[in-house]
TrEMBL record:
One matching Pfam family: HTH_Tnp_1
Species per Swiss-Prot/TrEMBL record: Microbacterium schleiferi
Protein name (record): Transposase
Keywords: Coiled coil
UniProt keyword Cell cycle, yes or no: no
Length: 101
């Protein structure tokens, strides 16, 4: 994955694009980036600014973190389930060396 551009650089490109003085294609050419990159950054800025509907950057970050947390918790639950099953099996077989009547 390519290294992300600095936030200041993205902010400058978006500010110029939002002025609508040049086309996205011209802005992309001037800054040496792709036109789709400019379009994506502008869309993100409009969503974050409330000018367009969608999931904001902060919400997307929070969702990503919450998904990671849920995955970790699911893994912990699975470990506990296996441990409980092992313990119940050990209790059913009784202590080693004992004879059941």
């Amino acid at each position: 994955m390519p290294k992300p551009f600095p936030k200041e650089f993205r902010d400058d490109v978006v500010a110029i694009a939002l002025r609508r003085e040049s086309s996205f294609a011209q802005i992309a050419k001037d800054f040496g980036i792709s036109e789709s990159c400019v379009q994506r950054w502008v869309k993100i800025a409009e969503v974050d600014g409330g000018r367009r509907a969608g999931v904001t950057s902060s919400e997307a970050t929070e969702n990503r973190e919450l998904r990671k947390r849920v995955k970790l918790l699911e893994q912990e639950v699975e470990v506990l389930r296996r441990a409980a099953a092992d313990l119940s099996q050990a209790n059913l077989s009784g202590p080693k060396g004992s004879t059941r009547s």
